[in-house]
Amino acid sequence: MSDVEMVVGMLPAVVWLIACGIAIWICGICIWRSRRDATHVVRPVSWPVVGGHLASLVLAMAPYVIMLLVELQIDRRLLDLYRRVGWWSAAVLIVLIVSELILMYRQARRAMMAQTNAVGTRTNQDENAR
Fold first, then answer.
1. pLDDT number for residue 1
2. What SS3 string covers the chain?
3. Alpha carbons within 13 A on the beta-carbon side of 102
4. Are the C-beta atoms of 19 and 56 separated by less than 8 Å?
5. Which residue from 19, 89, 103, 105 could staple onto 30, CB 3.0 to 4.6 Å apart?
6. 92 and 64 in contact (C-beta within 8 Å)?
7. CB–CB of 122/52 below 8 Å?
8. Number of domains composing the chain
9. Residues 6 or more apart from 103 whose CB is under 8 A from it?
10. Blockwise average pLDDT, block size 10, the chain, 130 residues
């Protein structure tokens, strides 16, 4: 197997790992930003996080497209491995992307509740000052 064939053969796995890494990163950001304590204000989901979610979604599909495009250039043993773990790798990515959506929803909901509580607190303080 030449170096080019080896690089082309490893490309779907590398892209899959990058997609998993970005998805885990997005989940971590959402968990970190949605925590509640006395010193931390929960903020809405930022646009870079939404962009990261879309990037992880596109990268989650890319390994399977790459494998189909370069199928003839991949070593048979590596191609058999990809075919055996294909459904499991897709299931892992689906779980990660659904987790991203759930955590982004959770952060957005907590931010909405924090903003609602902040407005209610200010209104009550204003009424008590009169």
1. 63
2. CCHHHHHHHHHHHHHHHHHHHHHHHHHHHHHHHCCCECCECCCCCCHHHHHHHHHHHHHHHHHHHHHHHCHHHCCHHHHHHHHHHHHHHHHHHHHHHHHHHHHHHHHHHHHHHHHHHHHHHHHHHHHHHC
3. 7
4. yes
5. 103
6. no
7. no
8. 1
9. 26, 27, 30, 31, 34
10. 81 95 96 79 90 95 93 88 94 97 94 80 59
Task: Return the number of other C-beta atoms located less than 10 Å from residue 73's C-beta.
Answer: 13
Residue 86 tokens read as 């294909």
How many residues does this entry show for the chain?
130
Q: How far is CA 23 from the centre of its chain?
A: 3
Radius of gyration of the chain (CA): 22
Q: Which domain holds residue 34?
A: 3-129
Look at the pTM and tell me if it is higher than 0.90. no
Tokens of 97: 């992307």
What is the rounded distance in angstroms from the CA atom of residue 44 to the CA atom of residue 106? Answer: 10
